[in-house]
Amino acid sequence: MNEGGDKKWGVSGENELVILPNALRFPLTSHAHSDVYQIDIAFPDGEPVKAGWPAIFLLDASNCFGTCVEAMRRMSKRPDATGVEPAIIIGISGEKGAYDVSRRQRDYTTIPVGPIRDERTVGGAPVFLDFLRQEVTSFVSRHVNLDLKRLTLFGHSLAGYFVLWTMLNHGAFFRNYAAISPSVWWDKTGIFNAAGSLTSSDRRLLLTIGEWEDSLPPWQAAASGSEDVIARRKRRNMFGNVRDLGETLKPRLGDNMSCLILPDEDHVSGISTAIPRMLRMASQR
Q1: Do residues 222 and 164 touch, judged by C-beta distance below 8 A?
Q2: In what order do the strands lie in the sheet with 53-59?
Q3: 280 and 76 Cβ atoms separated by less than 8 Å
Q4: Going from the N-terminus, what domains does the chain have, and what CATH number goes with each?
Q5: C-alpha angle 201-204-207 in degrees, rounded to nearest 5
Q6: CA 65 from chain center: how many Å?
């Protein structure tokens, strides 16, 4: 029950909150720098699996946890029709779900080849990866049995860069990688050098970019500041970077990689469109 209600919307204590069933929230403090993260865990329906459940690690989960959980639960009711099986969804967010820009830039980035672009702390990707592999995995495993051979890492934008960096440099832990509209521009040289050096891999990669990520969609064309937006998009070249990276990786990954242009989607809307595709990849054995 909502004990206090929410006067902003005229809600009283007699109204019930909408709750995501079979999902729990925990604070987890990183041993590396004592920062607190919000860990959300959604459990699938059905009896426990002897070999353990496949699991999806969802970065910036405060923006997409509910979307991902509901898509998985809806689609996994008919795996024969959808190609999606039940899985544990593990959401990782900032403390109390905060979208902390400075923390994201620290956790999701490496030191780029070339000058650092601003004065905020960067380069914490190795520490954050250890946090996921050791602390988050150990914590979740206390609550549910995981199949450590069927783990998926999902990230969007700068978190998508982190997904790519992880796969190309430390790819053994996760089986599947989903980089949605990744910010390759953060260290384009480093990403393409690593991609070019990849000989072969049994890892799977879903790489997506929205159709409108290198130009302005009709609904944004007349908006204030649109000239600055298009200039930034041209400078970062996210669409071209993903296209070129897909061409570089396809000979190395073969059928284990999908590089998709999402029709009529932009940088934000592409997340929801990509989730069902990621769920199908995560369901493969």
Answers
A1: no
A2: 23-29, 36-42, 88-94, 53-59, 146-156, 176-180, 204-210, 257-262
A3: no
A4: 22-283 (3.40.50.1820)
A5: 120
A6: 10
Cα distances from 9 to residues 15, 17, 63, 171, 272, in angstroms, run: 11, 13, 22, 46, 27
CB 246 within 8 A of CB 254: no
Please state, in angstroms and rounded to a whole number, the distance separating the CA atoms of residues 103 and 192: 25
What is this structure's pTM? Answer: 0.93
Q: What is the DSSP letter of 175?
A: S
Q: Token digits for 101? A: 């820009």
Measured CA to CA, the distance from residue 265 to residue 60 in angstroms comes to 19
Consecutive H or E run containing 166? helix 158-170
Write down the pLDDT at residue 35. 95
Assigned token pair, 100? 């902390």
Sequential DSSP letters for 96-163: GG---HHHHHHHT----SSS-SSSS----HHHHHHIIIIIIHHHHHTTS-EEEEEEEEEEETHHHHHH
What pLDDT, in 10s, does the model give residues 47-85?
888 899 999 999 999 999 999 999 999 999 999 999 999
Residue 233 has which token pair? 């998009």
